[in-house]
Known about the structure:
Chain A has 13 helices and ten strands. By secondary structure, chain A is an alpha/beta fold. In chain A, helix 4 (87-95) packs across helix 13 (317-335). Chain A starts with a helix and ends with a helix. Chain B has helices at residues 2-27, 44-51, 53-86, 90-100, 107-118, 123-130, 144-167, 172-180, 185-196, 198-213, 217-223, 230-239, 244-272; strands at residues 30-32, 36-38. Chain B: It holds the Pfam family BPD_transp_1.
Amino acid sequence: MITRRTLLGAAAAASLATRASAAGQVVVATWGGDYGELLTRNVEKPLLTPVGIEAVQDLGSQDARKTKLIAEKVSRRGSLDVVHLSDTDMYQMAQAGVFEDVDLPAVPNAANIIKGLRRPYSIPHILSAQVILYNPDKIEAPKGFADLWNPKYKGRVAIPDLNYPAVTFGSAIAGGGGMSNWQPAKKMLLDLKKNEPKIYPSHEQLAQALKAEEVWITPMWLARGFMWRKAGIKLAHAVPEEGAIPVVFEAAVPKNARNKAHAWAYLNAMLDPQAQLGFADRMGYVPTVTNATLPAEIAGQIGFTPAEQEKFRVPDYSYQAKVLPEILDFWNKEFKA
Amino acid sequence: MPALILPATLLVLLMMVAPMVLLFRYSLNLYSPTELMIEAFTARNYLSAVTDSYYREVMGTTLQVAFFSTLIALTAGFPAAYALARMRGRWKAWLTLLTVFPLMVGNVVRAAGWMTLLGNTGVVNAGLRATGLLSGPVQLMYTPGAVVAGIVTVVLPYMILTLSSVIEGIPRNVEEAAQNMGARPFTVFRRIIFPLALPGVVAGSALVFILCMNAYATPVLLGGAQFKMMAPAVYDQFVRTTNWPFGAALAFILLAVTLGLTVAGSALLQRRYRR
């Protein structure tokens, strides 16, 4: 029979158990699938297990992680030690004040981070950028974003609904604006509607349409293009001459993390050059540290030349965070209408 | 006796009512892109949702889809439910199992099936082309029709099972008596079966209407990016802009409209056929 005392005893034992195992543990909130698996193979097993740190992955969607961070904001002891988010979301959460500033002495590999990617609240892990993917059988190599407006491609332009921020800023640049001025995108996107773009609710559906050659040209992360090409879709890519918008996947440590020392060790391991290269071949993302060099045969497919990197249009995160709700409103109510 | 309902009540209070109360409180807060949620006590989110023509349109689409899907499910489900209710023996168990069969795959998986059927290179288009009826593909995916078709297949089992359990309770000899007195089959249906099955019609339609109003995966995957229903719009606010207050307000508006129409619709149907 269960009495109050046995219940209390069981609860105490359980809490002791979690505390004991927490000594060598680090809870990492991250994506499942390829990403989580590559973390285990390249970061956790070779670099953390040998020093006695046991990583526990808390797999879920990015939205679930953000929700957890917001919900736990006021708790003294959170449930996550390391959180992975895309750059835009990371900035938003950092503004909400949930992250510790990166403890640089505890993350020595941070010294090798590419200059433009350094932030006080997070480390960059992997990188790609928005390029123009196209079907080389159907059209000539495009030069930049402006090619989407080419009337020859009427009905053949694909737009990924999920990437509305990058597509909007790409359009803003094509229309004379920039990463700190999205206004020109309005006219540009409304003009684009005359070209009857097909807007896809998921990247997978867009890939299907590219494969079936229903659409020929689309703005998309190069990493995705690389994976689709590997999956047999006929695709080439062009880095926009006006500069590509990068996307960075980052890691940070919440202020209420229970195991900060291990969390910093985890971040440091993520920046290890060998670990970084492990993500290139399978997922098509580029390292974020200067001391990791991609093998030449992959570099041409997923990498960016120094000149292209120089021209990267890095988001103005503070501006973007402010205008994103406005952009989504426009996107839903006018562009997609 | 009251102790018996305690576990279920506690569970509902904890898992349903408490989060709803919290969500309602959030809907009165304000949103800022940088601070996310600011404590407040205002009806502004509700006002801006109601006055915004975009959200009125989204609600209009949702209502239309829910109404037509419910109507189709009722029309198609009634004969099937009648047949199932009047069936005896081994076949009945098998057919009941077959009826629930569509519910054994998730919404997303089912939508994926529809995508392979309706896509421009899908089965339907390929079939039409093979017979020479068409030269180019017809757009079937990303249309309201695809959404209604997708939703109806999800909700049809609910309608059939609810209706057939009520029809089973209608004594066969009532029908026979009407037939003996010279009523034609349609008259039997109109004057005898339908009025007696009305509780099932009301319950089934209410259940199905509620499911349709809250559909998420089907409209997103089959309706495409330009087709907006309420549930995806709520999700957009929560996830894409982290605007919990506005998302919560939209959710409560959806809840209120669904509840109001379900209650009003049931009352109307019942009054109409009470005579």
